[in-house]
Each structure stands twice: as structure tokens, then as C-alpha cells.
Amino acid sequence: MRTSFKRAAVALMMAPMALGAFPAMAEETAAAKSSEDVYEQLDLLMRVFQRVRSEYVDEVDDKEVIEAAIQGMLRSLDPHSTYLNPEVFQQVRVQTEGEYGGLGLEVQMDNGLVKVVSPIDDTPAQKAGIKGGDYITHIDGTSVIGKTLTESVKEMRGPVGSMIKITVVREGEEGSHDYDIMRDKILVRSVRHRVEDETIGYLRITTFNMQTGDGVENSIKELKAQLGDKMDGLIIDLRNNPGGLLNEAIRVSDDFLDRGEIVSTRGRRRQNNNRWYATAGDMLDGMPIVVLVNAYSASASEIVAGALQDHRRAVLVGDQTFGKGTVQSEIRLGRNGDQALRLTTARYYTPSGRSIQERGIEPDLYVFNDGHRPNLRRESDLNNSIHNEQSTVDRTGEEEDEDPKLNPISATPEPAEGEAATPPVDRQLKYAIKLLKDMSALPTPQVAEARPHDEQG
């Protein structure tokens, strides 16, 4: 009896433990089955690869075939996830870091030759005496004829301190000129500035690389020093800016905001959930700003535009932006870290909580340079674009809400006296100048009220 009692007691104690173990066991079984399926698929991939190697009509390059398989896997996810092989990775580093070893030339292709648009100030090319309008015919003794501009530019770049011979011909002079030049570190200019209509600062940002924040801040200081009290406002031109580094977009936004959130990101992993806030100090002390945007303003450009719009710090003029509202993380690969996986890891949101993925940022004032809205491809037109979870659009149906009225503005100000009213006319820029002039004429408290904005409940 005593033995039977002990057995029964053990059974009773074990029963709840066993019942509690069933879900865990089920989860482990499901995970094991999932892993088994993955290994079966990887085995299938290897068998296909072996068949291609051994039986394809022509001999294949193993590295190229494997790279194509990796790219195919990533392209099935979204348009922006990709594999960067060592060559592409190096090009991307130049774009993001904003510097490279080279000569400092802005060039274009002209009748099969490389034409110098202009040497960049204080670079080896300028110091050597190369001039705008020169034609580069040979690089290190090899003709550029038959080569693409990209190939020629690649040959001109190289390690800092290395030598290169450039042969040029100059209009109006006989013969050619040889220049032996030592490559140096060249900074990629992503920011340019000038004065418009005597009192308006104009800031053009072409990309967001590691030099952009410094470029913007230096440009603002120079414009303020040049214009002083005459400065009526600032135009920030983000048209055709494809984006770039998130932290640089945050820094540029912070330059014109005194407080509040700039942008937030949310992803599958907790480490991708972040919020960034403005620090005290507005470089323009509340001076009116107009931001120019178009269908090719994307990613980091949309972060800046969205932040300034949500805080009613700027008026957006132009066309709806591209709609790339996702963040890509760069994951180094390879023994030397000379290649990388660029993987979409989060969505980003404007201060008001808007996701602009597939939707873009709508300007406060639609202005089209040719008088009507161009039909251009945007993020939503790309294959496998990530869906906007806030959207009321069913991908197989129609949008539930009515489309907002665009009310396009044919912005054609009367030309100033002596100014030729001939195309091409940058209507968006001219409208921005006129708008800032009008806003500067208002008393300061009325400037904010004059900025167009959506009603919020």
C-alpha cells in the first residue's frame, strides 16, 4: 500500500509538470521542423548550383553565380536590401564618407573625351594648373577614347600620395599638356549656397554624406555674414536628393529646430526602435524657411522635410516626395569586412507619427515647373516595395479615402525689369523667393500663422 501511494503521489506531482511541458515541447518541435525545412532548402540550392557548374552550356564563374543567388534572395524582400561586393562597397563608402583619394575634378563626357567642368578649389588638379574647359585625352598614357566616364573617373582615383599623369588639350592652344599630379584626399561637396534676389539665402543639398552637416552649418554662417540684417529667409533645396545617412539628416534638421522630436524608427528588433530629439538652438532664430521638394527627394531628404513641416518650421513647396520610409542597416561581411549586406531593418516616422513609406511627404504648396504634375515613378511603383502599415490602400483595390485636391499652382511671377522671361524657368525656386519676400514683410508673430498647414484634431 505504501509503495502504491508513493507511486501515485509521484504521478500526481509529475502530471502538471508534464502538462506544462507540452507547449514547450511543441515549440521545440516546431522550431526543429522549421530548421529542418531550411536545411532542405539550402541543400536544394546547393544541388542546383552543382548542376549549373557541371551541366550549363558554358563554363560559369562560381563567384558570379553565388553573388547572383544572394542578390536574388535580397531582391525578393524589398527594393533596397542588397549585397555590396568589395568593388560596390568601396564606391558606397566614397558616397557616404564624402571623401576619396583623387585629383579634385568635376568632369563630364563630351564627344568621347573627358571634359573638365571645373577643378575644385584647393585640390591637386587646381594647383597643377588644370582648367575648366580642358579635355582629358590620356590617363597614365592610355587614351580615354572608348571608355565610359565611370571608368575614367575610377582610373583617376587612387590612394592618397600616389602619382598619376593626366594629358589634356586646351581650346585655342596647339599640342597637349602633361600634368604629373599627386593624389590627395578630396571632399565630396554635398552642399552649395548662394544669394538669391539680394536678400534670400539659397542652400542646395545634393546628398547626405558625412560632410553634409558641416557643409550646411558653414554655409549658413557664410550666408548670415554676407547678408547680415538684410537676410529675409532661407531656401533649402532638396529636389533630386536621394537621401543618405540618417544621422546627418537628423543633424541638419536639428540646425533649424529648437525642441521636439525629429524622427523615430521602429523595427522588428528592440535595438531598431529609437527616437531623436532636437537640441536647443535654431541657427536662423526662427527666420522663415522654404523647402523645395520633388518626386526624387527621398529617404534622408524626407526626414528633414517631414520634421520641418510637422513643427511648422518651414513651408514645403514643389511636388510629393518619393516615399522611401525605411531604414537600411549596413552589416559588414567577409574576413576583411570589405563587403556588406545592406538590409532593411526599420521604418521611420515623422514627429507627428506619419509613416511616409510608399506615400511620401506632400508639400504645403504644389508648384510644378512645367505647369502640370509630371507622372513619375515613386517608391510605391517599385517591385516588392514594403507596404505602409498606416495606409488605407488595399494593394488589390482602391483607396478608401478620397484623394486630396492637389490645387497645382502655376507659379509664373512677372519678370523683373530687364529680366528675360525665357524658358527654362525654375518656377518652384521663383515661387519660393516670392513667398519668402511676402513672409518677411509680415510682423514676426504672424509669420507662423501665414505658413500653410493641415488642420489637426
Automatic annotation (TrEMBL):
<protein>
    <submittedName>
        <fullName>S41 family peptidase</fullName>
    </submittedName>
</protein>
<keyword id="KW-0732">Signal</keyword>
<dbReference type="GO" id="GO:0008236">
    <property type="term" value="F:serine-type peptidase activity"/>
</dbReference>
<keyword id="KW-0645">Protease</keyword>
<dbReference type="GO" id="GO:0004175">
    <property type="term" value="F:endopeptidase activity"/>
</dbReference>
<feature type="compositionally biased region" description="Basic and acidic residues">
    <location>
        <begin position="370"/>
        <end position="381"/>
    </location>
</feature>
<dbReference type="Pfam" id="PF13180">
    <property type="entry name" value="PDZ_2"/>
</dbReference>
<feature type="domain" description="PDZ">
    <location>
        <begin position="91"/>
        <end position="157"/>
    </location>
</feature>
<keyword id="KW-0720">Serine protease</keyword>
<dbReference type="GO" id="GO:0006508">
    <property type="term" value="P:proteolysis"/>
</dbReference>
<dbReference type="Pfam" id="PF22694">
    <property type="entry name" value="CtpB_N-like"/>
</dbReference>
<feature type="signal peptide">
    <location>
        <begin position="1"/>
        <end position="26"/>
    </location>
</feature>
<dbReference type="InterPro" id="IPR005151">
    <property type="entry name" value="Tail-specific_protease"/>
</dbReference>
<feature type="region of interest" description="Disordered">
    <location>
        <begin position="370"/>
        <end position="426"/>
    </location>
</feature>
<keyword id="KW-0378">Hydrolase</keyword>
<dbReference type="InterPro" id="IPR055210">
    <property type="entry name" value="CtpA/B_N"/>
</dbReference>
<dbReference type="InterPro" id="IPR029045">
    <property type="entry name" value="ClpP/crotonase-like_dom_sf"/>
</dbReference>
<comment type="similarity">
    <text>Belongs to the peptidase S41A family.</text>
</comment>
<dbReference type="InterPro" id="IPR004447">
    <property type="entry name" value="Peptidase_S41A"/>
</dbReference>
<dbReference type="GO" id="GO:0030288">
    <property type="term" value="C:outer membrane-bounded periplasmic space"/>
</dbReference>
<feature type="compositionally biased region" description="Polar residues">
    <location>
        <begin position="382"/>
        <end position="394"/>
    </location>
</feature>
<dbReference type="GO" id="GO:0007165">
    <property type="term" value="P:signal transduction"/>
</dbReference>
<feature type="compositionally biased region" description="Low complexity">
    <location>
        <begin position="411"/>
        <end position="424"/>
    </location>
</feature>
<dbReference type="InterPro" id="IPR001478">
    <property type="entry name" value="PDZ"/>
</dbReference>
<dbReference type="Pfam" id="PF03572">
    <property type="entry name" value="Peptidase_S41"/>
</dbReference>
<dbReference type="InterPro" id="IPR036034">
    <property type="entry name" value="PDZ_sf"/>
</dbReference>
